[in-house]
Amino acid sequence: MAQKFLYLVDHFERFPRSEYGGIWNVIAEDDDECFDLIKEYDNGFNENYVNLRENVIKAERFALSEDEESRIVTSFTT
Predict the structure, then answer these.
(1) Which range, 23-27, 48-52, 72-76, has the best average confidence (pLDDT)?
(2) Which of 17, 18, 43, 73 suits 50 as a labelling partner, its CA being 20 to 30 A distant?
(3) What is the pLDDT of residues 58-69, one digit of tens each?
(4) Residue 1 has pLDDT above 80, yes or no
(5) CA 46 → CA 3, 28, 49, 51, 61, distances in Å?
(6) Sheet holding 71-77, edge to edge
(7) What is the rounded CA–CA span in Å between residue 20 and residue 18?
(8) How many Cβ atoms sit within 10 Å of the Cβ of residue 51?
(9) CB–CB of 21/13 below 8 Å?
């Protein structure tokens, strides 16, 4: 099985949907899967996600020692 990572992704949306942002915690194999999981999770995904792909690429990530299902672990968005 492929190596999985825990991604800590910064989140920002333009006003009026949000003034601040938040964070996504995602288990994924790579940047593309992480991006796709966030996009699929939020049905309202659109241009309000400023620089999401760049934020995924720049995200802190931690290798997991056990096999985990790819998923959104938690998110905090305002």
Answers:
(1) 23-27
(2) 73
(3) 999 999 999 999
(4) no
(5) 29, 21, 6, 11, 24
(6) 60-63, 5-11, 22-28, 71-77
(7) 6
(8) 12
(9) yes
